[in-house]
Write a structure and sequence with these properties.
This protein is mainly alpha-helical and 117 residues long. It has helices at residues 19-48, 65-73, 83-92; strands at 63-64, 101-104, 107-110. A hairpin with a 2-residue loop joins β2 (101-104) and β3.
Length: 117
């Protein structure tokens, strides 16, 4: 029989006590990493290098959401990204609470912000 004073409970350290808790925590961390990766790539194609991907932007910086999704699905690292993933990034940001994109109807653009913000 174990001495009661030597038993360590994971919940005492704020850690999940079940495999399900660990799994959900890892899944959330993985989702956050994927969201950051997607957000950075969207900035690349919508603000910095749209011509590299053959993306046509109008004079206000809007692009077709369908075209953006087509570009994403054509790249091995982003085939997983869905319309819902893109809309979540637009609505929630990528974890730093900054909103970098706008969606209106079936169009998307990067928000124009100064570096001072």
């Amino acid at each position: 029989m174990r001495d009661a004073c030597c038993v360590i409970h994971l919940c005492d350290f704020g850690l999940p006590t079940s495999n399900f808790g660990l799994w959900t925590q890892k899944k959330a961390m993985h989702r956050q990493a994927l969201d950051l990766k997607l957000s950075k790539f969207l900035l690349l194609i919508l603000r910095h290098q749209p011509e590299r991907f053959g993306l046509a932007l109008d004079e206000e910086g809007w692009a077709s959401l369908a075209e953006v999704l087509q570009i994403l699905h054509g790249l091995p690292n982003f085939r997983w990204a869905s319309r819902a993933d893109v809309r979540r990034i637009v609505a929630e940001g990528s974890g730093d609470e900054k909103r970098r994109f706008e969606v209106a109807d079936e169009r998307i653009r990067a928000c124009r912000r100064s570096s001072a913000e």
